[in-house]
Design goal:
The protein is α/β, with parallel strands linked by helices. The chain has helices at about 10-20, 30-35, 45-50, 155-160, 180-190, 215-230, 240-250, 270-275, 290, 310-315, 330-340, 355, 360-365, 370, 375-380, 395-420, 440-450, 455-470, 530-550, and strands at about 70-80, 85-95, 100-105, 125-130, 135, 140, 165-170, 170-175, 195-200, 200-205, 230-235, 255-260, 280-285, 345, 420-425, 485-490, 505-510, 515, 520-525, 530. Helix content is about 35%, strand content about 15%. Strands 1, 2, 3, 4, 5, 16, 19 and 20 form an eight-stranded mixed sheet that branches. Strands 8-10-11-12-13-14-15 form a seven-stranded parallel sheet, with helices on both faces. The structure holds zinc ion. Zinc ion (ZN) binds next to loops.
C-alpha cells in the first residue's frame, strides 16, 4: 500500500514516488530530524517526529490596530454572507472581538438620521465607511502555509492572505508539521502574529516513522493527532479497512476530515465510498468522475501511462470527466443525491487547475511581477520533478480537453449547490502559477463562471467554509454574537468580483482616465483592523528584496527577463 507518512532518509526510492504523488518537498537530513524533535515540547510524537519546519516562522505582529473596547463600522453597505442581498447603510458595533449590534440606519441617498445610530461614546474607535461594502472575513479551506520548495516565508503567505481578506485558513496537510502549525494557530489566537485563524489538519500518518498498515494503528494515530489538538485530518486514500477505522475514530473524536482522492488509491475508494464511511469533505475533484462511471470501473489510462510523469498525469486527468455518466443522467443524479443526503462538502479548488486550460493567462497574470517571489517562480516553471509543474509540452489539445473537463465539472458543482449541497472555497496556492490570496478571488470568479450568483460565491467563501470546518457558530457571517472578522472594500464586489484582487480592477473614468479601483481596504480579524493595502505593500517589499538579493527578474517561461 501507499502510505503518506513523512519519509525517512533510508527510503529514498519510496520518497521519490511518494513525493510525486503529493508535493515536492525536501528530504530531511539526519540533522534536520534531530532538530525536529525539539520543535514543540509537550506535544505528542505525531506532532513532531520526523517533521522539519520548512519555512521561516511568522514574525511578531507589527501591524493592525485594536482590538478596541468599542469599534463602530459606520454607514457601510453590508453583505452578511448568509445569501441575503446587500443592505445599508448600517452601523456595526464591535466590543473587543465580538459583534454586538448591527443597526440599519437609513436608506441609500438619504441623509442618515443621527438619532437612529448607535451612540458613539468617548474612547470608541469609529471607522467611517460610507460608500464601502462590508463582508464577513473569508474562509480558505485549502491554504498551505508554504513549503521550502516554494521558498515562501510564513510572513509572505500570511500577508498575501490577510491582504485579500482571508481571516480563517485551513491547512490541509500541515507540511511544516502539525506541531509547527498548532504553534502558529495559538500565536494567531493570541494575535501575536498577523495571520488568519489557522485550523490545520494533519496528513494521515504524519509524524509516524512506521507505515500504518492495520486498522488498530490507524485508530491509534487518529487518537494521537486528536490529543495534540489538530483540527482535522487530510487523507489521500487508503485501503478500505484502514480508511474505515480512521474515519470512524475521527468521527468519535469530532475531527474535520477531508480527502484528495489520489489516483493511486481511487481504484480502492471513490468519493461515494469514502463519503459513506463518514468522510465529511473532499478537496479538488478526483474520485468524483470515478464515482460516476457506468461503462467502466477505471479511468481509461493509455497503456504507456506513468503516474510519476506529471504531464501524463495531468493531461489524462483532463480527459476524465467525459468518461463519467453525463450530466442529469440517472447515475449522475443518484450519486449527487446520495452525497447530498450525507451532507458532504465539496471544495472544488477550480483555481488549482486553471493553468491546464489557459497556461498563458496564469503564467502571465498581472500580479506575478510584483507579488511572486523568485523562488516560487522557479518552482512554477516546467519541471519533471516539481509537483504540478507539468508543462513539458502543454499545447492546444491539452487546453481544449481541460476546457471540456471544466464544463462537465462545473455543471456538477453548480447543480450540487442548487440542490442544497455545500460547496466551499479552497485555493491550494503555491502550485501551478497560483498565488496566495489572489487565487482566493479567482476561485470566487470561477464559481461565478460555474453558475453561482456572486452572492452564492461569497456565501461559499464565508458561511459554507465555516460550516464545513465546524466553526460557523463563531465565524462565516456578519451576525450579532459572532467574531469580528470582516472584509471592507470601497467598491461593490457583486458587480465585479475583481475589485477584491490586491491589484484592484481596471476602470475607465468619465474623464477618460484609466485607473485601478478596489483592492480590500481593511481586513478586520478578531476586532483588529489591518490596512490591507499596506500588508500587500509589505509583500512587494519582501519580493523586491528577494529579487535584489538574487539578481532575479521574473521571466516568461523559457525566455529571458522581460524588462
Ligand atoms: Zn494542497
Amino acid at each position: 500500500m501507499i502510505s503518506f507518512r513523512r519519509p525517512s532518509r533510508q527510503s529514498l526510492p519510496l520518497i521519490l514516488a511518494v513525493a510525486l504523488v503529493l508535493f515536492m518537498r525536501p528530504l530531511p537530513g539526519p540533522a534536520d530530524l534531530a532538530a525536529a524533535a525539539a520543535v514543540t515540547p509537550g506535544l505528542g510524537a505525531a506532532a513532531n517526529a520526523g517533521i522539519t519546519p520548512q519555512v521561516a516562522a511568522a514574525p511578531q505582529r507589527a501591524e493592525g490596530e485594536g482590538p478596541f473596547g468599542r469599534l463602530i463600522l459606520r454607514g457601510a453597505t453590508l453583505i452578511d454572507g448568509t445569501g441575503a442581498p446587500p443592505f445599508g447603510p448600517v452601523d456595526i458595533v464591535v466590543e473587543g472581538n465580538r459583534i454586538v449590534n448591527i443597526v440599519s440606519v437609513g436608506a441609500p441617498d438619504v441623509a442618515i438620521d443621527a438619532n437612529r445610530r448607535p451612540p458613539v461614546r468617548e474612547g470608541d474607535r469609529v471607522l467611517d465607511l460610507e460608500g464601502h461594502y462590508v463582508l464577513p472575513g473569508f474562509v480558505d479551506l485549502h491554504g498551505h502555509l508554504g513549503g521550502s520548495a516554494q521558498g515562501t516565508p510564513a510572513e509572505y503567505v500570511l500577508k498575501l492572505w490577510m491582504g485579500h481578506g482571508i481571516t480563517t485558513s485551513a491547512d490541509p496537510g500541515s507540511g511544516n508539521g502539525i506541531g509547527w502549525m498548532l504553534e502558529h494557530k495559538a500565536r494567531s489566537e493570541r494575535n501575536e502574529i498577523t495571520a488568519p485563524r489557522l485550523l490545520p489538519s494533519a496528513t494521515f500518518g504524519q509524524g509516524w516513522e512506521e507505515p500504518i498498515t492495520t486498522p488498530e494503528q490507524a485508530r491509534a494515530w487518529v487518537d494521537e493527532i486528536a490529543d495534540v489538538g489538530a483540527h482535522g485530518i487530510k487523507f489521500f486514500g487508503l485501503r478500505p479497512d484502514i480508511m474505515e477505522a480512521a474515519l470512524e475514530q475521527a468521527g468519535t473524536r469530532g475531527l474535520y476530515t477531508t480527502m484528495h482522492h489520489a489516483q493511486l488509491n481511487v481504484a480502492w475508494m471513490t468519493v461515494i465510498d469514502s463519503a459513506r464511511l463518514g468522510l465529511t469533505s473532499m478537496q479538488h475533484w478526483y474520485g468524483l468522475p470515478e464515482a460516476l462511471f457506468t461503462d467502466r470501473t477505471l479511468q481509461s489510462y493509455p497503456l504507456d501511462y506513468n503516474y510519476n510523469d506529471e504531464q501524463d498525469r495531468f493531461s489524462e486527468a483532463g480527459r476524465l470527466w467525459k468518461q463519467a455518466a453525463p450530466p442529469y443522467s440517472e447515475h449522475w443524479n443518484a450519486v449527487m443525491n446520495e452525497l447530498l443526503a450525507l451532507d458532504f462538502t465539496i471544495v472544488p479548488t477550480f483555481v488549482a487547475y486553471e493553468t491546464t486550460r489557459d497556461f498563458m493567462r496564469m503564467a502571465r497574470a498581472e500580479w506575478h511581477e510584483e507579488h511572486t517571489l523568485p523562488s516560487l517562480w522557479r518552482f512554477y516553471e516546467p519541471n519533471r520533478i516539481a509537483h504540478a509543474s507539468y508543462w513539458f509540452y502543454w499545447g492546444t489539445e491539452e487546453e481544449v480537453a481541460w476546457k471540456e473537463n471544466y464544463r462537465l465539472w462545473m455543471t456538477f458543482i453548480n447543480e450540487y449547490k442548487n440542490r442544497g449541497g455545500r460547496v466551499a472555497v479552497g485555493t491550494d496556492s503555491g502550485y501551478s502559477y497560483n498565488l496566495y490570496g489572489f487565487s482566493f478571488v479567482r476561485e470566487m470568479e470561477l464559481l461565478r463562471e460555474a453558475g453561482f450568483h456572486p452572492l452564492e460565491a461569497i456565501r461559499a467563501a464565508t458561511l459554507k467554509g465555516a460550516e464545513a470546518l465546524g466553526v460557523a457558530d463563531q465565524v462565516g457571517t456578519v451576525e450579532i454574537g459572532k467574531m469580528a472578522d470582516f472584509v471592507v472594500v470601497d467598491e461593490n464586489p457583486l458587480e465585479n468580483l475583481k475589485v477584491l484582487y490586491g491589484i484592484g480592477a481596471v476602470k475607465l473614468t468619465l474623464d477618460n482616465e484609466v485607473v485601478r479601483v478596489g483592492g480590500v481596504t481593511y481586513t478586520i480579524k478578531d476586532g483588529i483592523v489591518f490596512d490591507a493595502k499596506q500588508l500587500l505593500a509589505d509583500v512587494r517589499t519582501i519580493v523586491r528584496e528577494a529579487k535584489d538579493r538574487e539578481g532575479f527578474e521574473i521571466t516568461q517561461p523559457g525566455r529571458g527577463p522581460f524588462r
